[in-house]
Amino acid sequence: MPRRALLDYRPWLLASLLAGVTYFFVMDDQIGGLWLMLWKGAGVAFLAMYAALRGRGTDGVLIAMVMALGAAGDMGIELDLRLGGALFAAGHLLAIALYLRNRREKTTGSQKLAAVALAVFTPLLGALMTYPQPNWQIAAGYSLVVGVMAAFAWTSRFPRYRVGMGAVLFVVSDLLIFAREGGAMSEDATQWLIWPLYYAAQFLIATGVVQTLRRDPV
């Protein structure tokens, strides 16, 4: 069974890594068009396939849908920032449902404090970075959703230094986008950070959740 699992499912992770890493080197191609948009979405789309085939039960379906919406968001954001944001927000809401279904039995005071900080300071920073740009309220509202997602990921039963840290990296990548869009940071300072942080976040979340589900009793 381990050998068969390796042969059947590892290619999806390898394909994801190949697409995600190589996109970093071509993302500034000004003539990429549709093919570059599909290339961008492929990294997380392969993670969605991995989760769909390797996950178990309702939670497996949820993490596959989270990744699928993430891939759609990757492509949608190339067409319109609000469209991409809406797709990501939908994925975050499903992720919140997943983490609520998998709460950690015991959490320490420091873990609870970290979760509260993520839920409170993420929207605050999102608002500060985009105000008074048009639609800064939308950025703040989205930041609230991603901050709450990260808070519940941090207090879930999934590995904190994979799923929890992945969610935190997701927060950081989104805040860098808002810093760029709001003029708080230059594009030169953010363009080399956003994609690696985001893709690492999705990879850590997908693999951390799926591998935990695989260890559950059937």
UniProtKB/TrEMBL annotation:
Instruction: Tell me the protein family, please.
Output: Belongs to the TMEM86 family.
* Gene Ontology molecular-function annotations: hydrolase activity
Q: How does it sit in the membrane?
A: Multi-pass membrane protein
- InterPro entries per the record? TMEM86B-like
One GO cellular component term, please give it: membrane
Question: What coarse category fits the chief subcellular location reported for this protein?
Answer: membrane
Work out whether the entry's keyword set contains Membrane: yes
Q: Where in the cell is it found?
A: Membrane
Q: Which UniProt keywords apply?
A: Membrane, Transmembrane, Transmembrane helix
The protein's name is Lysoplasmalogenase
Segments crossing the lipid bilayer: 12-27, 33-53, 60-77, 83-101, 113-130, 136-154, 161-180, 192-213
